[in-house]
Write a structure and sequence with these properties.
There is one protein chain. The chain is of the alpha/beta class and about 220 residues long. About 40% of the residues lie in helices and about 15% in strands. It has a single domain, classed as TIM Barrel. Strands 7-6-5-4-3-2-1-8 form an eight-stranded parallel sheet.
Length: about 220
């Protein structure tokens, strides 16, 4: 099946209320351009260097999402153009994004990453840390950051019931914090969860953004 057919098949499985982020990490610009020419406009990258190189080379109406772990010292490179940062896992990082947004005279949309998986290698606030950070209120003073919602990654397992529980727990937390802290902020509406192996479970639990790579572009070449 060629990329155009895979993209069309994927879109049939994704309802209108959920957006597809085509995860293009390690794939060449030519593959992204092929998806672009089929109508895909939203792409996600894990590494800042790769994201910046592709942004420079590819059409300017692409909406680039930073979906990987982001170090504070790398924010300045993507601040001028990034459409959404998914993996904000500390208030320190949020403050750095605000500083770089100010320098670039643009408000940078962000998602707060919550650790919902069993793997300790995954990043994110614990639910309690998230509640504490929001309750402290300092985030309200950040003029160049807009919090758009939450992001989480399920455990890498074939136990679908476990992954579904994890996604459900994130949706419950999302509803809780939206009601408590963002009732007057219409922009806080995004729930980013679900990847190639589990995006349908995520959609069933309320995901508005699914991050799909291998199901669209095929297996990654990590030697690139």
């Amino acid at each position: 099946m060629v990329l155009k057919e895979r993209l069309a098949a994927l879109k049939k499985r994704i309802p209108p209320q959920t957006r597809l982020i085509a995860v293009s990490k390690t794939h060449p610009a030519s593959s992204i351009l092929e998806a672009y020419e089929c109508g895909q406009r939203v792409f996600g990258e894990n590494k800042v260097q790769e994201l910046c190189a592709k942004e420079e080379e590819l059409p300017k109406d692409i909406e680039w999402h930073m979906i990987g772990h982001l170090q504070s010292n790398k924010v300045k490179y993507i601040a001028p153009f990034v459409a959404l940062i998914h993996g904000v896992d500390s208030f320190k990082l949020l403050r750095t994004i605000d500083k770089e947004g100010r320098k670039n005279k643009r408000v940078i949309p962000c998602l707060l990453q919550v650790h919902i998986a069993e793997e300790s290698t995954k990043f994110g606030f614990s639910p309690e840390e998230l509640r504490e950070m929001l309750a402290a209120g300092a985030w309200r003073e950040l003029e160049f950051v807009e919090l758009r919602g939450l992001m989480g990654m399920g455990t890498f397992t074939e136990e679908k019931a476990q992954v579904q529980r994890e996604f459900h727990s994130l949706k419950v937390l999302f509803d809780e914090v939206r009601m408590q802290y963002f009732a007057d902020r219409a922009a806080f509406k995004e729930l980013s969860m679900g990847m190639s192996d589990d995006f349908e479970l995520a959609i069933a639990e309320g995901s508005t953004l699914v991050r799909v790579g291998s199901a669209l572009f095929g297996a990654r070449d990590y030697n690139l």
